[in-house]
Amino acid sequence: MQAFTDLFTELDKTTGTHRKLAALTAYLRQAPPADAAWAVYFLMGRRPRRAVKSRTLAQWAAEEAEIPGWLFEACYHNVGDLAETIALLLPPSTASTQAPLHIWIEERLLKLAALDEPTQKEIMLSAWQHMDTTQRLVWNKLITGGFRIGVSQRLMTRALASVSGTEPALIAHRLMGEWTPSPDFYHALIARKDSAGAHSRPYPFFLAHPITQPLEILGDPQEWLAEWKWDGIRAQLIKRNAQVFIWSRGEEMVTAAFPELTAAAHFLPDGCVLDGEIVAWRESEPLGFGVLQRRLGRKRADTRIMEAAPVVLMAYDLLEYAGTDIRQKSLEKRRDLLEGIATAVAAHPIRLSPLVPAVNWEALNAAMRDARARGVEGLILKRRCSAYQAGRRRGDWWKWKVDPYRIDAVLIYAQPGHGRRSGLYTDYTFAVWQDGVLVPIAKAYSGLTDEEIRQVDRFVRANTVERYGPVRAVKAELVFELAFEGIQRSTRHKSGIAVRFPRIARWRKDKTPQTADTLETIKQLSD
Q1: 264-285 pLDDT, tens digit each
Q2: What pLDDT is stored for residue 290 in this prediction?
Q3: Which CATH homologous superfamily contains domain 206-400?
Q4: Given this model, what pLDDT does residue 357 score?
C-alpha cells in the first residue's frame, strides 16, 4: 500500500509525461504481481462497485473527527473532494500500514459490500487508524470510486512494455475488454508471446485527430479516403467461434442492448471484427443522437424500444478476417475485404459506411457544407495506405467536424469545482430569455482561462443573491458565448430542450444581459 501511495503522490505532483513514465516503470519493476495487477486496474480508470454510500462515509468521518455534520459539509464544499476532506479531518495518526495493496483490496474493499453497516464501519475506522494521512487519501479515493490520476492507456502501455520488453500494441490489446486483476492476469499481460486470449476480446480503437488547418496541408487528395462522421457510438462487432460480441469504445460490452445487430452478425463469416458506429436510423436517414440515447444504459432492449429507436451499425473498417489480425494491412486492402463481406448482410442492420467522393479538396468542402443537413457530424479523412493503429495518432486519420452551434447566455448559478478547482466557483449554469424571464438552458465547466475563472469567482462571491447549499444564485450580469454540438427536445428540462456537449466559447464582456439569446431563437436552430 505504501509503494502504491508513493506512486500516486509522484503522479499527482507532475504533469510531465517522462516523469510519469519513469514513476510507473519504477513501480512496476518492484511491485509483486498481485499488487501490480490492481495498480494497473485502478490507474486505467477501472473501479469496483461502490460498497459504502458517500453520505455514510461522511457521517462516520465526522463522528471520528468529533465535529458536527454541518461543519463537515462546510469543509467538504470548500475542499471539493470527499476523499481528501475525510483524510484532512480525521484525527492525526502515527501509524503507517505495511500491508500490500492487494490485501487491502481483496480482503477489505471487495468484501465491504456483503457486510452489514456496523461491520463496514468497524473495518473503515480500523483502516483509517492504521494509515497515515496520504494512505488514507488514496484508500478513501479507492473506496469512493474517486480514484482518478493523469495516466492514459497509452502511457500505461508504454510503462508495461518497458518493464516486460513486450510490444506495446500487444499489451494494449490484452488490456481491452473484461479482465480480473490477479497475478496470473499480470503475468499473461507482460508475457512476450501471446497466448490464446479470450475470444470475446476487442482491439484497441484507432482514433482520429481534429484537423484545424485547410485541407490542402494533407497534400494530394487522391491519397485519402473520406467518410461521413456519424453521430452515434463507436463500436466493434466481433464474430468468433460462432459467437457475437459488441463492444463500445468505452470498453463496455453492449451485446444485449442491440439484439438486432447480434442477429444480423450471424450472417457474417466467422473470425471477423468490424469497426464502426452504431447510429439511430430509420429507413434511409439517421435519427440523431438523442434517439440513440434511449438505447444506452440498458442491459437489454425490448421490442418497444427497438421500434422507437431502431439502429444500424455503419461499418467502416475490418480489423480481423478469417481469424487473422489484418490491422497492419493498408486501409484500402481492409476496405476491399470489408466490401466483400458486407454483401452477406446487405438486407440487415449492418451496413457498409459509404465513401464520400474526394476528387479534390473543393469537392470535400462542398460535402462538408451539406453535413449538418444530412444529420452527420462532419467528415473523417483517412490515408489510403494507413495501418490500423491504437489510440490517437497524428498523421493518418483526421476528423473534421461541423462548426458548433453558438448562443449568448447569461450566468445565473455557480458552484465550487472539484480537485484542483476546489475552492473556486467554476461550475456554471446559464440561461436565455423566454417571455422576459431567464430560463436555464445548459451547464458548462470548461472554456475559461485560469485568470478568467478567478475573475468570475470574485464576481460570484460579491454578487450572490441566494444560496442553495453549495450553489449560489448570482445577479444576472455576465454574458458568455456557449458552443454545443446538437439540440434536442426534452421533457426533463424546464426549457423544453437539451443541448449536447455545451462549453464556454468566450466571455462576452461587450454584451449586456438584455442582448442574450431567446429560447425561441435556439429552438429554431434545430428546425
Answers
A1: 998 999 999 999 999 999 988 9
A2: 81
A3: DNA ligase/mRNA capping enzyme (3.30.470.30)
A4: 87
- At 372 the pLDDT is 85
pLDDT at 347: 72
Residue 322 DSSP label: T
**What are the sequence ranges of the domains in the chain?**
2-144, 206-400, 405-525
Sign for the pseudo-dihedral over CA of 139, 142, 143, 144 = positive
Q: Are 84 and 61 in contact (CB under 8 A)?
A: no
Check if the beta carbon of residue 493 is closer than 8 Å to that of residue 523. Answer: no
Q: What is the pTM of this model?
A: 0.69
CATH 1.10.3260.10 applies to domain 2-144: yes
Domain 405-525, second-level architecture: Beta Barrel (2.40)
Strand partners, 432: 439
List, for residues 110-145, the tens digit of each pLDDT value: 999 899 999 999 999 999 999 999 999 999 999 988
> 502, 442 in Cβ contact below 8 A?
yes
Beta-carbon contacts of residue 148 (< 8 Å; ≥ 6 apart): 45, 141
CA-nearest of 227, 210, 471, 183 to 358 is: 227
HEC sequence for 185-206: HHHHHHCCCCCCCCCCCCCCCE
- Per residue in 224-266, pLDDT (tens digit) is 999 999 999 999 999 999 999 999 988 788 888 999 999 999 8
- Assigned C-alpha cell, 208: 482520429
Note whether 2-144 and 206-400 share their fold.
no
The separation between CA 429 and the C-alpha centre of its own chain, rounded to angstroms, equals 22
Element (H, E) at 91: none
pLDDT at residue 251, as a whole number: 79
3-state helix, strand, coil in the chain (%, to 5): 40, 25, 35
Name beta bridge partners: 405. Answer: 484
User: Pairing mode, if any, of strands 378-383 and 397-401?
Assistant: antiparallel
pLDDT of residue 194: 62
Positive or negative torsion for Cα 98, 101, 104, 107? negative
